[in-house]
Design brief:
This protein is mostly helical. It is built from eleven helices and no strands. The protein is globular. The mean pLDDT is 95.
């Protein structure tokens, strides 16, 4: 279970660092509003557990970031809007960040950067000269390099989120996503991600793709 008090503290610390000495409104209502979103009932993988994992990976990779606190805010917002049957979740999450962070006292330039990073999670393909984008995307994709049991739990949770999609259509769509990821020159862009996660992630993705290509077993 996620430690909600710890998450609230982490959000407050990040927000205060991002907005600087000018300060602003109490961070607590903003943290609570975000945590409410991350607890919505349609979520199975994109939960507060995923949020915590991404924040932990950002902490692990922060030495590569230009502005780690902006990246952390982007992590908070990157799946804040999540409806599995909708295709514009990242855009709606970015717009939520633009509204909320401006109100919370974050300077315009940093607010715009958070929104840009959130939109980048559509493709997970940051430029070579985009260290903040690289850190956020690597943190978001780190689950792909999980040990077998954790990876299996991740794929099962994703399937639960798309329970309304027929099996054949889900397999086809999921396989297309896996091929798109495997087609990237690199899944991970930070030195740590490349060295520590790349090989395992490609193994997991390839194994899942092979499983999806097998004919479904007939029910008994």
């Amino acid at each position: 279970m996620a430690d909600l008090d710890s998450l609230r503290t982490r959000f407050a610390r990040t927000l205060e660092a991002a907005r600087g000495p000018a300060g602003g409104p109490d961070p607590a209502p903003y943290a609570d509003a975000l945590l409410t979103r991350w607890h919505e009932p349609q979520r199975r993988y994109h939960t507060v557990g995923h949020l915590t994992a991404v924040l932990d990976r950002v902490d692990e990779l922060e030495r590569y970031a230009h502005d780690p606190d902006v990246v952390r805010l982007a992590a908070w917002f990157h799946d804040a809007v999540y409806l599995p049957d909708r295709s514009e979740n990242e855009e709606r999450s970015a717009r939520l960040a633009e509204r909320a962070l401006a109100e919370a006292g974050v300077p315009d330039a940093k607010t715009a950067e958070v929104a840009r990073l959130v939109r980048l999670t559509v493709t997970h393909d940051p430029a070579d000269d985009d260290p903040d984008g690289q850190v956020l995307c690597d943190a978001d994709l780190a689950i792909l390099a999980a040990p077998p049991s954790a990876y299996a739990a991740y794929t099962a949770a994703v399937r639960e989120e798309y329970h309304f999609v027929p099996s054949a259509a889900f397999r086809e769509g999921r396989a297309a996503i896996l091929r798109q990821l495997l087609g990237l020159p690199r899944l991970f862009r930070t030195p740590h991600g490349t060295a520590e996660w790349e090989a395992t992630a490609r193994y997991n993705l390839t194994a899942e793709l092979e499983m999806l290509s097998l004919p479904p077993r007939a029910s008994s």
